[in-house]
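the two lines:
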Amino acid sequence: MYRYDEFDERFVRERVAQFRDQVGRRLSGSLTEDEFKPLRLKNGVYLQLHAYMLRIAVPYGTLSSKQMRQLALIGERYDRGYGHFTTRTNLQFNWPKLRDIPDILDLLADVEMHAIQTSGNCIRNVTADHFAGVAQDEVEDPRPTAELIRQWSSLHPEFDYLPRKFKIAVTGSEHDRAVIKAHDIGLRILRHPDTHEIGYEVIVGGGLGRTPMIGKVVREFLPKADLLAYLEAIMRVYNLEGRRDNKYKARVKILVHEIGTEEFSRRVEEEFARLDGPSVNADPAEVARIAAYFAPPAYETLPATSGAFEAARAGNPDFARWVETNLTPHRQPGYAALTISLKPIGAPPGDATSEQMRVVADLADEFSLSEIRVTHAQNLVLPHVKLADLFAVWQRLGEAELATANAGLITDIIACPGLDYCALATARSIPIAQALAQRFADPVRQKEIGVLNIKISGCINACGHHHVGHIGILGLEKRGIESYQITLGGDATENAAIGEILGPGLAAEDVPDAIERIVSVYLAQRQAGESFIDNVRRIGLAPFKAAFQDTNREVSHAVA
Amino acid sequence: MAAAKRPALPVILLANDLLDGDVVFAAGDANGLHWSRDPGAALVGNDDATADRLDAFAITELGNQHVVDAYLVDVAIEDGVPVPRHYRERMKTTGPSIRRDLGKQAELPLAQAFLRA
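prediction for all of em together
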């Protein structure tokens, strides 16, 4: 893992001192709320419905056990004993007091963490594939790139007041687990087909929210060494030409859409040619220094299989089921990456108690080289577990209600905090996720349905990624009550797609029946081995719409 | 505040406490107003004159840096208790619907009266 150097350390400490002073001035009345708001947002402090909220950056979703323990401590000492992992792989505390936040930030700085740039119109926390450095299909670990971008974008004076927020994601694999096509900039590390040199495919203008767009490729191959100069060129074009007159049209996706991908690329290339590349690009020695932190850990040389693991699997059906869903093959023989589901049936997706955080930290120390990952699907990962240890880890997870066998299945639902906490929300999200998880709780049925991503947002801003859910649910207000719009056919992977609306909005209590009908169409019409999303692509929306309209008719009839 | 359209009467004034973010309600009587954490204590503005007083108190208190995000909310009187008409503000006066052990609903009996089936 990356370790702060003296500059990182000083930067974060100075920022805490600065914010402590700003909070002091706010509390003494010398700063008004209008003056203070942009300052607190730059430090991840929001005002939500019931309290302030602190959003803490987890850069590229990588956490050490020590950091996780500190989050547990903060949750206990300053919050209500739990935190919420988000789709940007951040952690949110829902109940901190403004007067305590400087002390919380000091505790974070003690473990090389902060809340800087988790809000505001700046480059936000950079995300990456949660199986970085582990995945078998990886060309190169994306984390050194993400860390380089983190350092470059932290307090970058030119990009501190952008037209709107700006999100970057990186993957090093063919299979996209970081939703790069729904980001302002998505980077995919790849090998040049002819030279086999490693570089980047650069995708710009993706995003969800009010106007969902899939990102466009603006550069098919960018040499690695040119990364920062090219990013700077993109940011300059956006900073100069992105709209500032209308916040709903201010994201880079609108600029790319309005002037066209070709023209946008031309302007970026023009700026890139004008830039003094060597003065912008990172010093190769610095790139190497960063990369060294992400060198593969000291794995043991193990056989590819483990007798103890196979015996446990054969002897315990529950363990076998968990292995089937929550395990990801590791590039190192004898190891696996395991997903810790933060989606126990009926619980708020992404929430973890301080006790659970400590259990995960302890397991990481004992079994996963002290490393933990946070996924954009609001789960955690222990990336380096020996096969022979898996049964023991599973048992310990089970004791902490962390062994739900549902990764990627219909109950592994993404949901934003929604109106239960969020001041922007138009409807609740979490109760919908809970109701659906309960409806589809039966493990046999979940397995039969297979991979199916449901994603729920409580407002048009789409923190719950509903547009790219196989089934998306958007909570809105309709004539004074909560109403839920269902979309179908979205995809968050390399085959990214925006879902299409199935029909009129539904009342909360009708959502489980509607989803049931959609699933029934799939089960009735699928071919052998066909996943839900492949089935939707093959048969089209019409049969699903018909089934959905049946739900709607029944509901209307019942109401009438 | 003056520019925003006032909600229909009756109204209460709510805000978030500056220091800890907790939701607070303007309470009191003809002799003066203060902030209470108990929604049951909220002063109900049944007429324009009281609503004007609540409005003026919001402006003063925002200026005094005691609260943030102060605004009037239209309510219905149910069993003698002012209950916000809109579900968003009802949520704000109770706490998260998914965690009944948190927020005002966990601490204040009158907030529990706001919970609707």
